[in-house]
Amino acid sequence: DAKTTQPNSMESNEEEPVHLPCNHSTISGTDYIHWYRQLPSQGPEYVIHGLTSNVNNRMASLAIAEDRKSSTLILHRATLRDAAVYYCILKNYGNTGKLIFGQGTTLQVKP
Amino acid sequence: DAGITQSPRHKVTETGTPVTLRCHQTENHRYMYWYRQDPGHGLRLIHYSYGVKDTDKGEVSDGYSVSRSKTEDFLLTLESATSSQTSVYFCAISDRTGGGETQYFGPGTRLLVL
What we know:
Chain A contains no helices and nine strands. Chain A has strands at about 10-15, 20-25, 30-40, 45-50, 55, 60-65, 70-75, 85-90, 105-110. A five-stranded mixed beta sheet of chain A has the order 1-9-8-3-4, with no helix packed on it. A four-stranded antiparallel beta sheet of chain A has the order 2-7-6-5, with no helix packed on it. The N and C termini of chain A lie far apart (about 40 Å). Chain B is globular and about 40 Å long. Helix content of chain B is about 0%, strand content about 55%. Chain B starts with a strand and ends with a strand. At the A-B interface, strand 3, strand 4 and strand 8 of A face strand 4, strand 5, strand 9 and strand 10 of B.
């Protein structure tokens, strides 16, 4: 499974946009890019995923570089509730379904 | 929210005793997973199931066994608990595999082995 690299931590101010980067230089053509987040004392929660094109949903946007070697999760307006660990995960259509979690990025949101 | 419950939510046990954790889903999803989460390691897959009576090992399966006798329940058993199995255990479900598949996680079980 291809590996992802994320910053250990980031800070943001409340109500400002947040851009969480992820590098995945060894991504294969069939790897999907997934983002999950984990709020304190809770299980991980799906955020968004994409393959090649940028994606938007009610929680966030996913911007994928043209060469697919990096991506950015965008929270358009951070709230205190968005403080969590964010995981960028590559998932191939051919695998068993397991998710391989790295260390993720701990996002702090300041009021 | 996906209908996933885990029981118990908290457990304290002694080294050498057997422990069974239960994951119950009401979504009728085919695939179920057990992960453990430890500081410095993130979440790691223990076992998974791709159907009733169909299970396979994950990356940290030693010391654990699983069973799935019906779609809605996936049991994780520690045959003889050790202190290294102190962890937070998460169950997850999905209705398919593949690159675009989404997993839904339960609330977790905190296990302390003394």
